[in-house]
Amino acid sequence: MDKVRQALDRAREERAAVTAFGAQGVLVTDEPGVVSDRIEEAELSPPSPALARAFAVGAELLERNRVLPADDRSDAAQAFRMLRTQVLQRMREHGWRTLGIVSARSLDGKTTVAANLAVAISADPRHTAVLVDLDLHRPAVARLFGASGAEGIDEVLHERATLDSVMLRPTGLDRLRLLPAQDAGQRAMSGLVARPSCEALLAELKGRYTNRIIVVDMPPILDNDDALTLAPLCDCLLFVVSEGKTSRADVSRALTMLRAIPVLGTVLNNCSTLAPNKTVSYG
Ligand SMILES: Nc1ncnc2c1ncn2[C@@H]1O[C@H](COP(=O)(O)OP(=O)(O)O)[C@@H](O)[C@H]1O
Ligand SMILES: [Mg+2]
């Protein structure tokens, strides 16, 4: 823990908020956000439902997969809403709308954080959110929301499907859209994110609605070069660290590799010891 903590302290000096999402589904945040009351009228309407295919999303499945409902009253959900507010403030200041969720390795909690943050963003009436699965070697968004079997973003990158035909609208989460990826095997996914169609896809997502925040579930930074290819296509990043798993060397290496792209903050996942009296439980 000490090593990770030292690395995080250093990251914190350089960056912004540090939020921790703890071991048994617990979460702490140490820098409460301030909610802006500036609501732009043009940004209040939800996107047209006609452009996305609706699918029923089960509350139990979401709970099992640690995705908290937008109106959840738990402290954990509240902490995600605080993280959302902090992130949105920083993004608004700079006119940024594409946020990549990154970490050094797989299984650090990127998808879990990306999904919860996208849900929390979509609950802010000033915004809509699109959760885009670009961890093509280990896609997880479809499984998390129970949308398995749906055609994926990989088909759009291969230019075999349109964005609208793969965009999903989970019922009950009206301001959230999903762009899942299919698990089509390593070879099929190789080099896909480097295609011009990937940059075009992110630009199209961003161009359609000015109030839309694009949350990209990214590949791990240190496992292959996909994340480094994708990172410059994001306006900014959020860095997930898994306590007891992510080594200090990996944190430093990953942050060094990301130097050119703004990192808004660090989410400490699987946290059991940081600020224990601030640690809160689900439910
Ligand atoms: N704070 C947490 N406590 C317990 N399990 C977690 C936590 N965060 C993530 N997990 C679980 O760990 C696994 C990996 O998380 P995931 O978000 O898929 O990581 P990544 O996207 O970085 O590979 C998943 O099964 C997820 O449910
Ligand atoms: Mg993942």
Please provide the count of β strands.
Answer: 10
Tell me the number of structural domains. Answer: 1
User: What CATH architecture would you give?
Assistant: 3-Layer(aba) Sandwich
Fourth-level CATH superfamily: P-loop containing nucleotide triphosphate hydrolases
Topology:
Blueprint: H1 2-14, E1 17-22, E2 26-29, E3 53-55, H2 59-64, H3 75-94, E4 98-103, H4 110-122, E5 128-133, H5 141-145, H6 153-157, H7 163-166, E6 168-170, E7 176-179, H8 186-189, H9 196-208, E8 212-217, H10 226-230, E9 236-242, H11 248-257, E10 263-271
Parallel strand pairs: 1-10, 3-6, 4-8, 4-9, 5-7, 5-8, 9-10
Antiparallel strand pairs: 1-2
The structure holds adenosine-5'-diphosphate and magnesium ion.
Summarize the structure.
By secondary structure, the protein is an alpha/beta fold.
What tags apply to this protein structure?
283 residues; alpha/beta; Rossmann fold; 8-stranded mixed sheet; two-stranded parallel ribbon; 11 helices; 10 strands; 35% helix; disordered C terminus; binds adenosine-5'-diphosphate; binds magnesium ion
